[in-house]
Amino acid sequence: MILIDTLAQGLLLGGLYALFAAGLSLVFGIMRLVNLAHGDLIILGAYLILTLTTLTGLHPFLSVLLAAPLMFALGWLLQTHLLNRVLGTDILPPLLVTFGLSVVIQNGLLEAFTADSRKLSAGSIEAQSLDLGIVTLGVMPLLTFASAVAVVFALNLLFYRTALGRAFRATSDDATTAQLMGIRPQRIFAMATGIALVVATIAALYLGTRANFDPSIGPARLLYAFEAVIIGGLGSLWGTLAGGIVIGMAQAIGASINPEWQILSGHVAFVLVLLIRPRGLFPRAND
Amino acid sequence: MTALLSIAGLTAHYGDFQALFGVDLTLDQGQTIAIIGANGAGKTTLMRAITGVARVTAGTVTLDGEDITRHPAPDILTRGIAMVPEGRRLFPSLTVEENLMIGAHARTGNGFWTLDRVQALFPILKDRRHNPGTALSGGQQQMVAIGRALMSNPRVLLCDELSLGLAPVVIKEIYAAFPQIKDSGTSIIVVEQDIGQALRVADHVHCMMEGRITLSGRPADLSRDAIHDAYFGVSHA
């Protein structure tokens, strides 16, 4: 009974990690860019939702509808005016620039919001649960997991059922030949980063309603996201969901043995998966 | 009559290395020209310079009177020049049908070439439409690459080394599609190392060597020796 409950909680926690990771996976899958500022952008999204909630009095679930287009625009501008300038055959410049961006975002948030912890209040829904007989699941973790599945499903539809998705995949395969098809890779990259930040905003909503956040916690979210992407197989969206679930379950199992082992267990699971399957659980065939 | 495509004094570099030295040529509406030459002659660079992929350092490329020199590759495609690149360069993560559809990515209006017409031109592509493009044989991949370029409804089709690595019977099958492509109103530039094939399909032939055009003329007017000299850079004197 306890084991089932632990696994169920781990599964739902995995949904949150998958949300952290989906944007990272999307950007890496299309432009082979590891965005070291991704965790901080999630935290920036959380502060944006908090600000909009405070200013408008809207529920965070409605504020996210205002925050998402703003984050899309931020992603577009970031890619167009900063990241596109450093993308190339050398992987070091984008790493350095996104690392710098991470520092800038953290310090900017610190200046604007201080180091105090904040939380998004979702109201009574935070305490509601669903009794399924053998396990009782919180409504918020269930919503988080359902959102993660929906996000991955929607991104897959976008990738494999639309002209834009075709252009994403073609650009990822061969940006030079894609240009001969009339595709403008830099616009494709800007669109991808915009979408990644919309996903990051959804992650921010659940991060902010689930726990406290402050300007310094972005890098740890990046680490979970990165591990989920690697476990799942670089560039695979369903793999990213699976990776998030592996980390979530490992953490839940570790915490059930000893609460101090929660974080460590996730990292150990990451190392074990890499030892057994170095390319992740669901690597893309052409990577 | 104004040429459909006019190239004047075209010079291109890869870094410090100069690959083209003042190339001049014209392509008229409905014409097929062939560019022949040995490896390293600059044929592919010329194609890449026309399509905006290689860096043009001097000269002009004019399409129907409009200067398109140094325009980005996507702009050049939308103005009507499509390329079948050397080595096909199909997108591995796309199916055959998706590879064809991506060719129409920037298309804004209607045109002769549709998915149905491309699949009628190369029926095998309809049978294999759900296969990954790169899982096909070399000849079939070449058909996808040609179909993909046609999907943009180009006024000018550039074909770079169509016959490279293909069996003669497959090459024949591919070139058998050319009359239909010409009938659709598309003018063609073919880059070929296969001299015999080039002479068969072209109205006009240019031979390149070391980044320069060393011989030009109608196939019927060019002697075997003259082509040999221009191609290999040797003299019978």
From TrEMBL, chain A:
Keyword Ribosomal protein on entry: no
Biological process terms in GO annotation: amino acid transport
Coiled coil ranges: none
The entry's keywords: Amino-acid transport, Cell membrane, Membrane, Transmembrane, Transmembrane helix, Transport
Residues passing through the membrane, by range: 12-34, 64-83, 95-114, 134-159, 188-208, 228-249
Annotated localization: Cell membrane
GO molecular function, one term: transmembrane transporter activity
Principal localisation: membrane
GO CC annotation terms, alphabetical: plasma membrane
Pfam family, one: BPD_transp_2
Membrane topology type: Multi-pass membrane protein
Keyword ATP-binding attached: no
Highest taxon listed in the record's lineage: Bacteria
Family under the similarity heading: Belongs to the binding-protein-dependent transport system permease family. LivHM subfamily.
Matching PANTHER family: AMINO ACID ABC TRANSPORTER PERMEASE PROTEIN, BRANCHED-CHAIN AMINO ACID TRANSPORT SYSTEM PERMEASE PROTEIN LIVH
Name of the protein described by the UniProt record: Branched-chain amino acid ABC transporter permease
The organism of origin for this protein: Paragemmobacter kunshanensis
Lineage, broadest ranks: Bacteria, Pseudomonadati, Pseudomonadota, Alphaproteobacteria, Rhodobacterales
TrEMBL record, chain B:
GO terms (BP aspect): L-amino acid transport
Keyword DNA-binding set for record: no
GO molecular function: ATP binding; ATP hydrolysis activity; branched-chain amino acid transmembrane transporter activity
TM ranges: none
Keyword field contains Cell membrane: no
Pfam family, one: ABC_tran
Stored InterPro entries: AAA+_ATPase (IPR003593), ABC_transporter-like_ATP-bd (IPR003439), ABC_transporter-like_CS (IPR017871), BCAA_Transport_ATP-bd_LivF (IPR052156), P-loop_NTPase (IPR027417)
Keywords: Amino-acid transport, ATP-binding, Nucleotide-binding, Transport
Domain ABC transporter, chain residue ranges per copy: 5-235
Family: Belongs to the ABC transporter superfamily.
Protein name: ABC transporter ATP-binding protein
Source organism: Paragemmobacter kunshanensis
